[in-house]
Amino acid sequence: MKNHAFTIRLRDEAAAEKYIALHKEVWPEIVGPGGALETIGVRKLQIFHIDPLTLFMYVEAEDHFEPVRDFLRANDLHPRVQEWDDMMHDGGGSLLVRHPGNDGRLNWAPMRRIHHVDFTNTLPDLEDK
């Protein structure tokens, strides 16, 4: 297993309210058994919100998971996945906006781990200890 962290900004307060409401019932084509996230190798995913308008996403995934390749591939797995992604990221009505300086292929900016503590020795992916 590998872990990954990402961040992104919410467009405004109205977008934050809508984003949080939508995530109370994410579509099964995305998070259900056999859905896009499971298919691309994601095993755990958590999203956290902090004001002002910032999200943090933590992902644990299979070793073969590569965020750019697999998150983009997820959109091709089912039209509803692409529809969801478009609501989040596409155009002026999107809920999310990139962090300044994030010019990567993913809208969510990858974050670098700078510290860890693991008394259980179960924290995955610690090649940069």
TrEMBL record:
Top EC class of this enzyme: isomerase
UniProt GO molecular function: L-rhamnose mutarotase activity
Protein name: L-rhamnose mutarotase
Record flagged with keyword Isomerase: yes
EC number annotated for this UniProt entry: 5.1.3.32
The entry's keywords: Isomerase
InterPro entries reported in the protein's UniProt record: Carb_Metab_Mutarotase, Dimeric_a/b-barrel, Rham/fucose_mutarotase
